Amino acid sequence: MLSDLGSTQHVRNLWITGYGDFWSNSASRRQKPLSSLSLWASATFSTESSNQPGSSNGADVLTLRATRRKLNLSLIGVTLVLNGSWPVWSRTAILAEEELKLERYTDPEQGFTLLKPPSYTKVEKAGATVLFEEMKKTSNNVGVVVNPVRLSTLTEFGTPEFVADKLIQAEKRKESTKEAEVIWAKERSGRGGLPVYEFEYRVDSTRGGIKRIFTAAFVSSKKLYLLNIVHSDNPENPLDGGTRVMLEEVLHSFDIAPVT
């Protein structure tokens, strides 16, 4: 989704033709959200044009320290191998290894935090609160959009499954989409018990081929926070296990920023 839109006007058009119907219908039984609920669409940005690196805007970036995790990984690995639990250890090893590479990004002004791969650089893009692109392949990206809403919690939109179904229907209505399917949808608890919805999509598009899209969303202080992670998954170069685990960690790390 993040790489399928080419301009701000395209975002507005998608809101009118697709996502707008979903949010309008969802709100028919309650107070209607602000028109800015096009955020699900406005969280998608084209990466076909060149981008200039932006300033940090006061965001705090911290590199995760790994010494203790390496020691824990070694102990866990030995125990699980001796117990014959290699598949579990294998995932644990991948997870710990990828965690060592992730960096903490916090936006104190907007009030959110997440982990990001160090190979992803920050770029400026219209409509994005923050956008990171992989240096060697800019169509792989991690983006966040924050927009005001009139609702107090994400659950007022519906269940994760309901939201995922409506979003994938909107995705299918895009001219560039050849095929789209939801892989899974679930809810987790963020900081302070905040409801966070997470989704995984698989989209086959005429613009960039097959992509895996991981999305997380939550509502806090009358603002909707949306994270989209897009990565290519074409048959000739499929998404590998290590990268997938890393992207899932980015997904699960999206949360409101701690109060300092």
Automatic annotation (TrEMBL):
Gene3D superfamilies: Mog1/PsbP, alpha/beta/alpha sandwich. Residues 102-256 form the PsbP C-terminal domain. One of its GO terms (molecular function) is calcium ion binding. Transmembrane segments: none annotated. Signal peptide: none annotated. InterPro entries: Mog1/PsbP_a/b/a-sand, PsbP_C. Pfam families: PsbP (PF01789). It comes from the Eukaryota. One of its GO terms (cellular component) is photosystem II oxygen evolving complex. This is PsbP C-terminal domain-containing protein.
